[in-house]
């Protein structure tokens, strides 16, 4: 029976070391779960196992090939998993910002976005609005038409009017101002996403996968409102929930406002007929008095 003295003693440093490695492995697996990196990761593991077997079975030619190509394989993995590495660094940056209290603290109200989303939903107008937080969106701002204008309901409605030249692409809001319109955004390549998502929704998700931005998107087919945060999208939400969600993710109070209602042509014609009827009755009354 082996002596217990040969059992290695676990120190606090060893336990901490194991926990750190376990955390890194868990975060990596959570990061690549449901993405296109999984099949590539499986292929890398299979190739590594095959090369390991070849090394111990004394396959000299294969072993020489492994020894020659191994230094370049590291750079190949960086290229293959470039997007996932970029997402991991962005997520780490967001967590560090949260730890030091880096929450959005802009003084301008984003109620205009809520009102605009309600208008777009009623008129079934496609729209995509991206709100910058800690991670800068300068690269995407430069891909569009610079505006640097005050954020307002009227300007958003004007930009996304179907006949307007800037309605395609995204509007990026930076520090309470509309930085640019007609911006190009990266499309999400997540295979788990429903095939019902079009380019606008995939762009709304894609920008939140690479940055900590918040996207508000309105479907041009159904008029449904959605919000994307952290690579996750919430579909078919109400205007009230949008207001609450923006208040939550931006960590500030968004005051409620009276939502504008869209007057249809039929209602407008009915109001005009009513005005004409009242005016006619008034003329008759004045004629009778004479």
What does this structure look like?
The chain is an alpha+beta fold and 290 residues long. It has two domains: 11-80, no CATH class; 111-249, YojJ-like (1. The chain has ten helices and seven strands. The chain has helices at residues 12-32, 37-56, 60-80, 82-99, 111-123, 138-141, 153-159, 199-210, 239-249, 265-289, and strands at residues 127-131, 145-150, 170-174, 177-183, 214-218, 225-229, 232-237. The chain has a seven-stranded mixed beta sheet, with helices on both faces. Strand 3 (170-174) and strand 4 form a beta hairpin. The longest helix has 25 residues, at 265-289. It starts with 11 loop residues before the first helix and ends with a helix.
The number of domains is 2
CATH class descriptor name of the largest domain: Alpha Beta
Q: What kind of oligomer do you see? A: single chain
Mean pLDDT: 77
Helices and strands in order:
Blueprint lengths: L11 H21 L4 H20 L3 H21 L1 H18 L11 H13 L3 E5 L6 H4 L3 E6 L2 H7 L10 E5 L2 E7 L15 H12 L3 E5 L6 E5 L2 E6 L1 H11 L15 H25 L1
Parallel strand pairs: 1-3
Antiparallel strand pairs: 1-5, 2-4, 3-4, 5-6, 6-7
